[in-house]
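ENCODED BACKBONE
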Amino acid sequence: MTLKKHNVSIVSAIASLACTASTAAVAQSNVTLYGIVDAGVAYVSNTSPSLGSKGGSAVIAESGGGSPSRWGLRGTEDLGGGYSAVFTLENGFSAMSGALGQGGRMFGRQAFVGVKKDSLGLLTLGRQYDPYFDVVGSFTSARQWGGVYGAHVGDVDNTFASFRFNNAVRYASPNLYGFVVSGMYAFSNQASGSSGTGFSNNSAWSTAVGYSKGPLQAGVGYFHLSHPSSGNTNGSNTGGAIAGDYSSNTDIFFSNAVASQDVAGAGVSYQISSLTLAAYYSHTQLKYVDTTQLNLSNFELSGRYSFTPALSGGLGAIYTQGSMMGTNLKNVVSGPHPKWIQFNAGLNYALSKRTNLYGVAVYQRAMSDAKVAAIDASGGPTVVGVHHQVAVVMGVTQRF
């Protein structure tokens, strides 16, 4: 009888120890569910379904006019020795229809896994944003408060993520005296071969340096795409770095097949009490398969002011000037010197820490040798013969 009691005590101790170990294991890892649901109503003037088409004004039930709707899972696990495993799975969707975004992908916004150590940095692999987008693109008014309609004409510098990067390996350094250095390479996943195919067909790389200290933030960066148009439907490499994300009808500069795209840029912001001022510059070089070339420079100045803890407003001005060598973008430019000007204005009112009302108005005009305006994600470029476009969106955003 005593032996049985002793055995029972041992079993109980082992069970208790197992439960403790299980609890400790759970405590060392965590998974967070997060997301944004954004819905509103938008008005767009002079919009057509494609370049060179007829059209008119439109009133649209809009999802993501302020912040694109999404939900995601983010997790970490303590591996010991200061190392952690991390992952993110992020889905984009329409709050109006429930449809998947990013070409119907389940986790089209982000899907990556990696390893982190505070003293060594972060290494991640999967579908990701590039360093230029994260560091330099954050200084634009679209990313600060203007929403997708406030992006630069054609989103030619990808500051509002018209495309993300598949097959990407990315590294970010630890914070060193306010500086963080990051780099990424996205593979084509295609074997070497004849001209127009192979290792570099639809590959990409990106790098950026960010700085943050007190009220000052700054960043510089660069990214390069090789044959990104081959990732479009029926292209020669739809499994490469860019896949199906390079063909929106407002991405007017990609209407011809692109052989390479290079973007260099810099941004800076400074906060003075309730006012935050920002400046941004980018230079984009597009080389087309037909040997023509387009250079575009974006200059932006913006400011945001907090009138009260709940109410803030922003203003931004963007000037885009181009140089076209060859004129095969016949529905976009009529000569070598296209220009665009754009003004963004926005108001945001916080109903709580997680819910806010917003309103954004955007005006864009094509000038000089530019033939059309194309406010990003507005449904399409301006109709034939019309050189200006207006978009106004009002909505509600709820975060969880």
Remarks:
- The CA atoms of residues 39 and 278 lie 27 Å apart.
- Confidence is low (pLDDT under 50) at residues 1-11, 13-27.
- The first helix runs from residue 2 to 27.
- The radius of gyration is 24 Å.
